[in-house]
């Protein structure tokens, strides 16, 4: 720390007047929000394929009753790692990638507020997942206690790799918190003059609220894994009743993180869909203000519903009632959102390009996931559904056609802006229909086997579930294989295709469409004038 | 928003990669170390790997903060950049608040619900059948299974060292504020005196905390392994102590920077950030004093 000012040695000497650096250093050392967004998106897609392969192992084992392909111990590692990789490696980084690419473009900012920290946030993720996935190859095997890692399964009875798992979670948490701080600082501080909060695209709003949730709950996750670490290695008894602790304490702290976490995975998708549906309906979003308030209400409620994951562990009656009713309240703001999306489409001049197909499927199928969530929210009914495939069906309906379709819709919507080329519309639609059919064939039957009593996370099952499981597996294989088509479409779009104009969608609004396609390496180095249409409320 | 024109976007930087490598090596070393300790394996590489990682992190901290300090002093940061730093620090402190909230939440849950249930009270008192002889009291001077978790003979008396520590930390919150006012008046002599006093108070606090831990371990039998009281006690006070250490280091570095002539009456966010952090640490202590020691 020299007190002498050495302008020649500051990293500022270069400032940001030129294009990307060459070679690997461009990606390793970058501070550019578009580069970092690209890194996040590719990392997320790699993790999506990795987590997807694990799902394929699970579905292959469940194709028929009996144990055929993998050992039960390995099956447990697959269910655990599939969940962890998809939640923390695929869905969350994809949305951070979209935020990095789009928020500065949407609000007219030169970059993210803290660009070096932005790169740090990204690179922690490959480090964390390298550490986590490598445990699969160690002697005792990888984490095998489910992605919710309930104690004492994850403490007293855990394989040795749990220690690395804990530290990997710490790294992911640090990454998420820094990424979220960057989003908050960018949205609050870097908006172009005239871009008031209530004029921001809804994607910025939902991400602002998501970032708040992340900063609030990722430290709680860090706290709970730290308690695990102490119980495992330093003799504490947080989750051990023999010392006066309580295993249920783990579940409370975990789900205090875990429930907001599910909104972290869906709110950015709400925002993206709220841009896409108006574009292809050629109408402004219906009820913008109510969308903002509904998102904030969902975020608030997400903090007071966590024990609905724990109805069967022995929560006092008053608690069961409170958490049941509070959970049901979430249906109100969510209903507002669905109503607004439908009303936006009402009497619009609809066209169904690939982003719109994914967005419409999002609205319909996410709503199905919401309804099964309401069923699960009813405490006495949940006693029957708990830990069955009905739960698996529920959260895959909100995560696959919810979060992931939201990501696909966003990717197709903004690919022309990112690459400067139009993607292949025919292949895009094929990708949609195969995903749509595959996903429903995979997950819809899970409702039935779940209601009939098939438990989750078990490699074998009763013969009566055989037909539905085979159907599920066929759907899952279809859905999985289809994602290679998506990879092909993206690569094809990067390498060439019809040149995209600055605004490839005639119904689109927003600052991101005022810059050329592909977006130049640096945009809005000085803040833009808002287009006339954006100045009206 | 006239300050919009020149928002500083740094060019490429190696520090994020160095930081990532440092953290990865550190946690890999720690994990290996802990696992080898638990399995009683000799000749563990863990400590060495951890040490290498820690060196990386130290190098990164010096380099990265050094770069930021140079840029700030070169006048590259606009008022808008300043606001980004302020938002960043604010939300970082909020994340720290939530980290402590997890441990406070665990403490409240044990004391309000699961502890009494284990002792046979309330609607879930059926848990009592696990250890029928267990009686719940707080502080927990009897554990359900004393063989696994030998209970403490007594717990720390709040009205001796902890009370003194409370006085020390609360005083230090005032002294750091006096230092801030001196800085804003441009009175460098008083600034150094008050800031030096703050760091000194922090160091005294830590020394007393160490004394208290030694007493707990050697005389009271209050350890991490002495049941849930020891677990919550050491986790809350221990993480707080770690944060006091970080805060005192931050303030100490600010003192060094002030000695070298950094900061003026208007541009001193580094100092303010450290003092915010110090106030946060202070507030956590007050909560600790009330809920861990006294009540």
From TrEMBL, chain A:
Pfam family, one: COX1
Gene3D superfamilies (alphabetical): Cytochrome c oxidase-like, subunit I domain
Described purpose of this protein according to its UniProt entry: Cytochrome c oxidase is the component of the respiratory chain that catalyzes the reduction of oxygen to water. Subunits 1-3 form the functional core of the enzyme complex. CO I is the catalytic subunit of the enzyme. Electrons originating in cytochrome c are transferred via the copper A center of subunit 2 and heme A of subunit 1 to the bimetallic center formed by heme A3 and copper B.
Keywords noted in UniProt: Cell membrane, Copper, Electron transport, Heme, Iron, Membrane, Metal-binding, Oxidoreductase, Respiratory chain, Translocase, Transmembrane, Transmembrane helix, Transport
Molecular-function GO terms, alphabetical: cytochrome-c oxidase activity; heme binding; metal ion binding; oxidoreductase activity
Protein name: Cytochrome c oxidase subunit 1
Localization, UniProt: Cell membrane; Membrane
Family of the protein in this entry: Belongs to the heme-copper respiratory oxidase family.
Domain Cytochrome oxidase subunit I profile intervals: 27-534
TrEMBL record, chain B:
GO cellular component entries: plasma membrane; respiratory chain complex IV
EC number: 7.1.1.9
Classification via PROSITE patterns: COX3
EC main group: translocase
Membrane-traversing stretches: 15-34, 46-69, 90-110, 191-208, 228-256, 276-294
GO molecular function list: cytochrome-c oxidase activity
GO biological process terms held by the UniProt record: aerobic electron transport chain
Keywords attached to this entry: Cell membrane, Membrane, Translocase, Transmembrane, Transmembrane helix
Keyword set includes Repressor: no
Compartments (UniProt record): Cell membrane; Membrane
Domain of life where this protein originates: Bacteria
Membrane topology note: Multi-pass membrane protein
Domain Heme-copper oxidase subunit III family profile: 3-295
RNA-binding in keyword set: no
Family named by the database record: Belongs to the cytochrome c oxidase subunit 3 family.
PANTHER family: CYTOCHROME C OXIDASE SUBUNIT 3 (PTHR11403:SF7), CYTOCHROME C OXIDASE SUBUNIT III (PTHR11403)
Record-given protein name: Probable cytochrome c oxidase subunit 3
């Amino acid at each position: 720390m020299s007190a002498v000012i050495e302008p020649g040695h500051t990293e500022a000497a270069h400032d940001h007047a030129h294009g990307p650096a060459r070679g690997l250093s461009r990606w390793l050392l970058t501070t550019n929000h578009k580069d970092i967004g690209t890194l996040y998106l590719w990392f997320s897609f790699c993790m999506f394929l990795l987590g997807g392969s694990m799902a394929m192992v699970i579905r292959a084992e469940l194709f028929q009753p009996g144990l055929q392909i993998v050992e039960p111990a390995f099956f447990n590692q697959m269910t655990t790692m599939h969940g962890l990789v998809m939640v923390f490696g695929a869905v969350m980084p994809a949305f951070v990638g979209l935020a990095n690419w789009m928020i500065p473009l949407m609000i007219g900012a030169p970059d993210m507020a803290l660009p070096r920290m932005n790169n740090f946030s990204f690179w922690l993720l490959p480090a964390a997942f390298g550490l986590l996935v490598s445990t699969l190859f160690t002697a005792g095997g990888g984490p095998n206690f489910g992605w919710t890692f309930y104690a004492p399964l994850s403490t007293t009875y855990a394989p040795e790799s749990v220690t690395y798992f804990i530290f990997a979670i710490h790294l992911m948490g640090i990454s998420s918190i820094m990424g979220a701080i960057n989003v908050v600082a960018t949205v609050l501080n870097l908006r172009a003059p005239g871009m008031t909060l209530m004029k921001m695209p809804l994607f910025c709003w939902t991400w602002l609220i998501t970032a708040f949730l992340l900063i609030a709950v990722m430290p709680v996750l860090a706290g709970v894994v730290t308690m695990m670490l102490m119980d495992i290695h330093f003799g504490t008894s947080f989750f051990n009743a023999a010392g006066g602790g309580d295993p249920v304490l783990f579940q409370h702290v975990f789900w205090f993180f875990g429930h907001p976490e599910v909104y972290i995975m869906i709110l950015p998708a709400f925002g993206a869909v709220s841009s896409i549906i108006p574009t292809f309906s050629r109408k402004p979003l219906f009820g913008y203000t109510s969308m903002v308030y509904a998102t904030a209400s969902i975020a608030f409620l997400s903090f007071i519903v966590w024990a609905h994951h724990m109805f069967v562990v022995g929560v006092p009656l008053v608690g069961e009632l409170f958490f049941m009713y509070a959970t049901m309240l979430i249906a109100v703001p969510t209903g507002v959102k669905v109503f607004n999306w439908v009303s936006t489409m009402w009497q619009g001049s609809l066209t169904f390009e690939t982003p719109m197909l994914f967005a419409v499927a999002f609205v319909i199928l996410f709503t199905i996931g919401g309804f099964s969530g309401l069923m699960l929210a009813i405490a006495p009914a949940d006693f029957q559904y708990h830990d069955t495939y009905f739960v698996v069906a529920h959260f895959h309906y909100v995560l696959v056609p919810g979060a992931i379709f939201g990501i696909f819709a966003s990717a197709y919507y903004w690919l022309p802006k990112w690459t400067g080329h139009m993607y292949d519309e025919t292949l895009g639609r094929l990708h949609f229909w195969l995903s749509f059919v595959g996903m429903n064939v995979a997950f819809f039957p899970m409702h039935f086997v779940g209601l009939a009593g098939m438990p989750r996370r078990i490699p074998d099952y009763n013969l009566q579930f055989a037909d539905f499981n085979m159907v599920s597996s066929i759907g899952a294989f279809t859905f999985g294989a289809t994602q290679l088509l998506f990879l092909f479409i993206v690569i094809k779009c990067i390498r060439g295709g019809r040149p995209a104009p600055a605004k490839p969608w005639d119904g689109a609004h927003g600052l991101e469409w005022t810059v050329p396609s592909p977006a130049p390496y640096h945009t809005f180095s000085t803040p833009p004038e808002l287009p006339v249409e954006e100045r009206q409320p | 928003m006239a300050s919009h024109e020149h928002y500083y976007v740094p060019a490429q930087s190696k520090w994020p990669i160095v930081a990532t490598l440092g953290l990865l090596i550190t946690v890999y070393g720690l994990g290996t170390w802990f696992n080898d300790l638990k399995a009683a394996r000799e000749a563990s590489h863990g400590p060495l790997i951890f040490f290498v990682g820690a060196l990386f992190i130290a190098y990164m901290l010096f380099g990265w903060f050094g770069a930021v300090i140079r840029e700030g002093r070169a006048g590259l940061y606009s008022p808008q950049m300043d606001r980004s730093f302020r938002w960043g620090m604010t939300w970082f402190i909020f994340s720290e608040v939530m980290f402590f909230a997890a441990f406070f939440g665990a403490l409240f849950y044990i004391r309000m619900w699961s502890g009494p249930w284990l002792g046979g009270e309330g609607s879930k008192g059926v848990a009592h059948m696990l250890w029928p002889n267990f009686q719940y009291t707080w502080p927990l001077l009897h554990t359900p299974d004393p063989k696994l978790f030998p209970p403490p003979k007594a717990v720390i008396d709040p009205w001796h060292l902890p009370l003194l520590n409370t006085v020390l930390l609360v005083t230090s919150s005032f002294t750091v504020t006096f230092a801030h006012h001196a800085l804003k008046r441009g009175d460098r002599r008083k600034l150094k005196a008050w800031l030096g006093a703050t760091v000194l108070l922090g160091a005294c606090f830590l020394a007393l905390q160490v004394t208290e831990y030694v007493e707990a371990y050697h005389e009271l039998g209050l350890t991490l392994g002495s049941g849930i009281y020891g677990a919550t006690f050491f986790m809350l006070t221990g993480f707080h102590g770690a944060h006091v250490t970080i805060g005192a280091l931050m303030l100490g570095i600010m003192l060094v920077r002030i000695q070298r002539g950094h900061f003026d009456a208007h541009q001193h966010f580094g100092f303010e950030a450290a003092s915010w952090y110090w106030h946060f640490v202070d507030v956590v202590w007050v909560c600790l004093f009330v809920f861990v020691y006294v009540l």
